[in-house]
Amino acid sequence: DIVMTQTPLLSPVTLGQPASISCRSSQTLLHSNGDIYFNWLHQRPGQPPRLLTYNISNRFSGVPDRFSGSGAGTDFTLKINRVEAEDVGIYYCMQATQSPYTFGQGTKLEIK
Amino acid sequence: EVHLVESGGDLVQPGGSLRLSCAASGFNFSGSWMSWVRQAPGKGLEWVAKIKGDGSEKYYVASVKGRFSISRDNAKNSLYLQMNSLRPEDTAVYYCVFFWTGSLWGQGTLVTVSS
């Protein structure tokens, strides 16, 4: 199984300041069809996860441009340019390249 | 717009059975792999099962193999999860998820396994 490892697990951030979350996969996420099935998800308390980025760096429809995804190989990063109050919650990385699909442990972003 | 609406969650005793449903709309359902993902209270996300668009291929996480069965009815744009021999550790919110290179999630339905 592909293991997804996130750091940090807790991220206290001041409003208006940047934040960064890292995710490392134990194997390459390059599918045999040439796609990379890697998502960043955001989950607010009591809500389902929602897609932020896919294919490493593509922002999903409606996601603010303060969110950006990057990475290559087995190392990926989600950056938030200037944290806003609505950004609190848990961030997950995940891979859907190989079954079983797997998720990172989650990073809790909170406001200082 | 893509919509995924789960139903069927309930309180069930250990050893019992439950069938979850997911109504899908807004995309090519019959041509899409569909999955179930669960989240135990206060815990992270765990992928449970997936099924190919025509239903010909199915995959499961090891912990539910032999107990859970995923199926679909493309005429009704519906996805199902039959859960048998339920255990307390199956207690979770179950999400219906459409994965492509991205993912879209339903609101979830709560399954509680307890005596």
Mean pLDDT of chain B: 97
Overall form of chain B: globular
Total number of beta strands of chain B: 11
Number of H/I helices of chain A: 0
**What is the general shape of chain A?**
globular
- What is the ordering of alpha helices and beta strands of chain B? EEEEEEEEEEE
- Assembly state of the chains shown: heterodimer
Order of helices and strands of chain A: EEEEEEEEEEE
**Distance between the amino and carboxyl termini of chain A:** 36 Å
Low-confidence stretches of chain A: none
Distance between the termini of chain B: 40 Å
Beta-strand residue fraction of chain A = over 45%
What's the helical proportion of residues of chain A? under 10%
User: Which percent band covers the strand fraction of chain B?
Assistant: over 45%
Structural class per helix/strand content of chain B? mainly beta
Structural class of chain A: mainly beta
Short description:
Chain A has 112 residues and is mainly beta. Chain A has strands spanning 4-7, 10-13, 19-25, 38-43, 50-54, 58-59, 67-72, 75-80, 89-95, 102-103, 107-111.
Summarize the helices and strands and which ones pair or pack.
The complex is a heterodimer of chains A (about 110) and B (about 120).
Chain A: E1 4-7, E2 10-13, E3 19-25, E4 38-43, E5 50-54, E6 58-59, E7 67-72, E8 75-80, E9 89-95, E10 102-103, E11 107-111
Parallel strand pairs in A: 2-11
Antiparallel strand pairs in A: 1-3, 3-8, 4-5, 4-9, 5-6, 7-8, 9-10, 9-11
Chain B: E1 3-7, E2 11-12, E3 18-25, E4 34-39, E5 45-51, E6 58-60, E7 68-73, E8 78-83, E9 92-99, E10 103-105, E11 109-113
Parallel strand pairs in B: 2-11
Antiparallel strand pairs in B: 1-3, 3-8, 4-5, 4-9, 5-6, 7-8, 9-10, 9-11
